[in-house]
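Students often ask why we bother encoding 3D structure as a string. The short answer is that it lets us treat folding as translation between two languages. Here is a chain of 285 residues written in the first language.
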Amino acid sequence: VQQQQQILLIGLAVSLVLLAAVAAFTLHSSDRVGQQMGAIGQSLMQSQRLAKSVSQAVVGNPQAFPDVQESASTLGRNVRGLKAGDDALRIDALDGGFQEELDKIVPLVDRADKSAAVVIAQQKVLTQIGASLRQINRQSGDLLELAESVATLKLQQNAPANEISAAGQLVMLSQRIGKSSTEFLTIDGVSAEAVFLMGKDLNTFKDLAQGLLQGSGELRLAGARDPQVRQQLEALIKLFEQTRTQAGAVLANLQGLVTARDAQNAIINDSEPLRRSLEQLQQRV
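And here it is in the second language, the structure alphabet:
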């Protein structure tokens, strides 16, 4: 009986050890899969967040740049953790059966990381351009109001036809400058037409306003003599100079804007293939 009890106790101890080992293995395996699934979910979320935040960054939203940096960093670290493991994130590398899929995902993530870095490097340029375009848009309304005032005065005073026509052109140009500022940035990039029109309209506006105020032989305009007209023209030219300064800041930084736009397009074009690949990986794990 004593021997049987000893054998049973030994068997029970062995069974408990085996049970503990199985439980530990199961818990570890469950935790491992949970961490991997969490990393895939994080990667999915950050890939979509990156595409949204980079669009805000390119139009000069200062709050978007930290989001771009965080999303790109988190996305890259999680995907690379799934590929090779990451002790700090407690992510084990996925088994060999998933490596072929990861080999397709990693280049997309690397490209997104590089493109995000390009956008972040242009932060100063993009915020300046965004602020300038918004300022031009706001000022265009005031330019329009002053230009309409000049045109009305010219009509009331029965001014020569060429002067009334020049004042009417100022009204039209005020509207078109504001329109160009809103169309400057498009989904496809910088609008070449808006860039051309803005530069052309700014030069024409200056010539017409100066011609109406001081006279211009080339435009066949006599200088304004009426005090009220002169006052309105001087206010118009003063405001226009502020607008032209803002526009100059935009046009001088076109190369940085184009570079950031190209990087944004790369991120957006890759976001859908990246999302599909990560979802497929998530379903298989």
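Translate back mentally: The chain has a mean pLDDT of 87. Keep this in mind for the problem set.
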